[in-house]
Amino acid sequence: MSQPRPSFIDSPYFIMECDNWHLTDDAPEELKKEFEEYMKSDYLRKRGEPMPKIIAKGKYLGVEREVECFLKDGFPIIEVDGEFNQEAQNDFIIKLKKCPAIGGTYYPPENSLLAACSVLESVFFDDGSIPTIEAIGDIGKIPTYDIEGIVY
To answer: Which of 55, 61, 70, 76 has the fewest C-beta atoms under 10 angstroms from its C-beta?
Structure first.
């Protein structure tokens, strides 16, 4: 099933480098939005996998929010209610540096989606807020061992 060719591809603002598609800084906002939507939806399309991301909902700074987290250039980025917010990103980065263990004993790799999931689930949202978390695609796995009688 083929998709129509996105308009940004024929734009003079589009730069097609190997593993580094991007738009020039002076690209119109409408074109930037189309490009970002395409890159999010088309990620790993050839392999038939969705772009790995986490969607978390909970109370942040006293307001119910939806937070989407994905990797960009190997670093977790969050969008709050569909918008990038530098203050929220800074707060997230600080909490990511002190990432809580998952299951009490497993510390996920730094700057991984598993680390981001741990932060979103445990410390990002307001105290008393119980977030809902949805993982889309492969965000990583907690290692397990085949040892008889071991309890996780």
So the answer is: 61
Q: From CA 6, how far away is CA 37, in angstroms rounded?
A: 11
Q: How far apart are CA 32 and CA 12, in angstroms?
A: 13
Nearest one of 68, 52, 84 to 131, comparing CA atoms: 68
pTM over 0.85: no
Side chain identity at residue 75, one-letter code: F
The answer to whether residue 25 scores a pLDDT higher than 70 is yes
- For residue 127, the SS3 value is coil
Spatial contact of 88 and 95, defined as CB atoms under 8 Å apart: no
DSSP 96-115: HHTPPPBTTTB-PPTTSHHH
**Cβ proximity of 54 and 120 under 8 Å:** yes
